[in-house]
Every structure is written in C-alpha cells, then in structure tokens.
Design a protein that fits this description.
12 helices; binds iron/sulfur cluster; about 325 residues; single chain
Length: about 325
C-alpha cells in the first residue's frame, strides 16, 4: 500500500487548568491522549464520539491551530511540528478545514466574492480579474450561481453557506479537508446533498477527508474507515463495514445501536448508556469507559486495555472483547 498522506502518531493535547488569585496550574484537561491513525490519499476517515471527546481538538492540532502536548503529525512524511513558518504556509494550502457553522467562519461583512478570493490573495496568486473569475468558478463547482459573488453570507440558507465554506476550502486545491461537524447542523435532506457534494469533489480531486462527527450515522456513507473516540482516546478503529456490522467495543456498540434502521417497521435493541461522561480533568483509571460500561470488571479499572487485532481491518482496545463477541454471537 502507498505511504499515508496523513499520519497521526500518539497525539496528545492537554489544556492546563488554572485556579486561585495567581492562576496556578492545578491540573490538566486530558482532551486528546495518545491518539494514532493514518489516512491515505482519496480516502475518508470518520472520527466519531460524543461532544467533548476530543475529536475536534485532534482536527485543530493537525492544522496547527493548537500545539500538541506530545506526539507527531506527519503529512506526506514530513513532521508538521518541525516546519518553519514559511514551510507551514506552503503546507496550509494542502490542508483545509470546513467548520460546523459557516456563519462563524465566513466574514459576515465580506461579500462571497471577497471570501472566496481571500485564499488567493493570502497566497499571492493571480490578478484581481483572475481571482474574480476563480471565485465564480468555485461557486459553480459547488452548485451555486456565479452571480452570488456580490452577495453576503447572511443572504444564504445554512446549506448554501456550507457550500460557500466548501468552495473556500477547495480554492487552493488541497489534498486533505478536515470536515469538523461540517454537516451535523443541517437538515437530513440538505445534509445528504452536502455529503454528496463532498464525495463528488473527493472523487474529482482525489481528496482525503477527515470527517469529524458526533453521530455514526453521519459518517456511515462517506468513510472507508471509522475511529471511535471516548474521553480523549480512540477505543476502536475499523473499516466502515466492520464497525457497523460487528462493532466490538461496548461504546461503539452503544453508538451503532442508536442508528435508525432504514426499514421503519424494524428497530434495533437500543443500548442506553447510563451516567454522564466523566470529567476529562481526572479521567477514570484503566479503561476510561469503565464507569459507564455494563460489562466492566475489576481489571477494567486497573489496567489500560492494549490494542488488539480483531481482523486485519479492525482493532479494539477492550479487555473483554472476545468474551463479549461470543455472548453476542451465541
Ligand atoms: Fe467495558 Fe472493560 Fe471493555 Fe472497558 S475494557 S469497554 S470497561 S469491558
């Protein structure tokens, strides 16, 4: 297999917690802890978990919007943590992000034309006339009229604004787009249109997508591979088929059980997780899921589960996955 486009190795991001008059550090928020994965050109990795599990922090750390506490991010084999400012500027053309709320990321006082021309201005590409044509081309590429260049973001619907966000993200012909809850706030039908647009662009541009979402059903049709995060750690990673057809980790099973079946007459046995997600300031010992897991035993609180291989396309971090899988199949 070819070398990965993106390789995240043991990525860790802690945020200091400060208190008192002198704002002394009293602890750390363990937002991301020892996260590793790879992503190949033209493929999609879905990164899924409840809100606050650290998945968006992973995306922001890859983009250097946050400095990692430990670990490495390699893009085309280069360690992004060692790049100079000028080198980063060049790499930033290849890695773009689409956020959940385009209203927050699109400058409301700028016209759509100015918003779409901005990446070319920053990277000193083209003449004003060329940039204007490129902005119109981008609008057409994402299914909006070329005349939209003279309008403002607030004049568009949520789905159309997300198209503008995607147009800006593809302006510099990137190799990787991080979609951070990019379709989560949209209606189901609009969501499907935006997902289809992303898949079309992925096909045409050989784009890699890191698709961050809190809901497994959102990433189901876009991902080649899915990684499930819980409280800062990945607990299971597998090809899309494996994760939906035979989830191994109890947390993944609970997420899969919440996905509605296409047949309205049938329902899954829903696994409802008890209790709240524990604080990431003092995450539980051993397996972080043990405070909510119906299958937890003593070892789960005492020892962090190692990665185990279920199939060549599926790995899980759970002490009891073999027994639990047996129980399900019996
Ligand atoms: Fe549950 Fe134990 Fe597996 Fe964690 S290691 S998911 S607590 S069975």
């Amino acid at each position: 297999m070819s070398a990965p486009l993106l390789e995240v190795r043991n990525l860790t991001k802690f945020f200091p917690v400060r208190a008192g008059v002198f704002l002394r550090k009293v602890g750390d928020v363990h937002a991301v802890d020892d996260v590793s994965f790879t992503l190949h050109r033209g493929e999609t990795l879905g990164l899924v978990g409840e809100s606050g599990c650290g998945k968006s922090t992973v995306g922001k750390t890859i983009l250097n919007l946050l400095r990692p506490t430990a670990g490495q991010v390699l893009f085309e084999g280069r360690d992004l943590g060692t790049l100079s400012h000028a080198e980063w500027r060049a790499v930033r053309r290849d890695i773009q992000i689409v956020f959940q709320d385009p209203m927050e990321s699109l400058n409301a006082r700028h016209t759509v034309g100015q918003i779409l021309e901005e990446p070319f201005v920053i990277h000193k590409l083209g003449t004003p006339e060329e940039r204007n044509i490129w902005a119109r081309d981008l609008l057409e590429r994402v299914g909006l009229p070329r005349s939209a260049v003279s309008r403002f973001p607030h004049e568009f619907s949520g789905g159309q604004r997300q198209r503008i966000g995607i147009a800006r993200a593809i302006a510099l012909k990137p190799k990787l787009i991080i979609c951070d809850e990019a379709v989560s706030a949209l209606d189901v039908s609009v969501r499907a249109q935006i997902v289809n647009l992303l898949l079309e662009l992925q096909h045409d541009m050989e784009l890699a997508l890191l698709f961050i979402a809190h809901d497994l059903s959102v990433v189901r049709h876009v991902s080649n591979e899915v990684a499930v995060m819980y409280l800062g750690r990945i607990v299971e990673r597998a090809s899309s088929n494996e994760i939906y057809d035979q989830p191994c980790h109890p947390y993944t099973r609970a997420l899969v059980s919440a996905i509605p079946l296409p047949d309205p007459g049938r329902e899954r046995d829903r696994i409802v997780l008890e209790g709240d997600v524990p604080s990431p300031i003092e995450p539980p010992s051993g397996c972080r899921f043990h405070t909510r897991c119906a299958h937890a035993e003593r070892v789960c609180a005492e020892k962090t589960p190692e990665w185990e291989t279920v199939t060549p396309w599926q790995q899980v971090a759970c002490h009891r996955w073999r027994e639990l899988r047996g129980e399900i199949q019996d």
